[in-house]
Amino acid sequence: MKTRLIFTFFFSILGILSWAQDKKETKKEQLKYEPNFMVGFDVLNTGAAFFSDRKLYQGFISSKIRGNVHAVAEAGFEKNIYQKNGYDAKVNGPFVKLGAFYMLAKDAENEFNGFYAGGKLGGSFYKQEYMAIPVRGFGGSSSSVAFPSSSQSSFWVEGTLGGRVQLFESNFYIDVNLQPRYLVYTTKQDDISPMIIPGFGRSSSKFNMGFAWNIAYKF
Amino acid sequence: MLFSCGGDDDICESGEGTPRMKVAFRSAESGKDRTLDSLYVAVDYGSGKVQLGGVAKADSKLIPLRVDDSPYTDVYFRLTNKGAEAKVRVKYTTKSTYVSPGCGMKKVYENLTSELITPNPVQNLEAGQNQIENEDKTNLYLLF
Predict the structure, then answer these.
(1) At A55, which CATH number?
(2) At the N or C end, where does chain A have fewer CB atoms within 10 A?
(3) Residue A7 is part of which domain span?
């Protein structure tokens, strides 16, 4: 029930945002929206997945809406473990992010080249299992409690700060961005704060930073 | 990693974790609370005795109990460092509750019962609050 409420909340925010943009569009009477898409895939995190326990695969689709405003949708899948300070946990699941960014500075010849900043809302729907949560004791006595696997969901806001560069004269682009994020809401199993969340990362503190290094193709 | 500036708050502040057992002292003759000139405490956490050190001019002492699945903790009391040692077995049932990312889980002790296995210098025991949820109330009185 709570999940549904959160959903409604997020989509109503999105609704307001897109509505607001529509209104501006009519005011300024700018160029009409021409279908354009850029599809990218994060190659750096995919590569890193071979060497670490964190398996993160993510990609994005972005489209120039009007002027300097681009809409962006991201989706991905992450599998991760957390083994630290007596904890032993694993998670896996998909995540999605929706948002928009503004081209702050762009190349005069190619408006898709440049630097941008924006924001996104993210959500993850995942499976977690805590094999051990520590009970900290005294004098070397300690123990742990295990919890069965369960399905949880988490939601966060995310900033995006990045740049795009066309590769020579091709339709290929390199898109690099930083993603500072703040955890807004998460469902909990027996009140246990999640230590890792797919798409968010380590969540023992609410603030986290992610990044993506994409190779993108513009259609 | 360069970008992982999230910072894990792994710190578990004392008082948030598993509560300790509070032991106070009484006179065996009058039954009144008394202050001990010195007291030395040791606890067996499953791998031999661990000395918790001594206190001077104390009217109570907080003692951490075992957090593993053992149904009891053996506590040893001495009045002087080299003196006779009394052994008290504290039995309980436990319940786990979640505290925070830094602390993890904590144990709450219930149905506390104590048994004086080796008397001297402790003459007798008197039960206090029979559950340990925080460190405010006295759980066990030692009669000297």
Answers:
(1) 2.40.160.20
(2) N
(3) 1-32
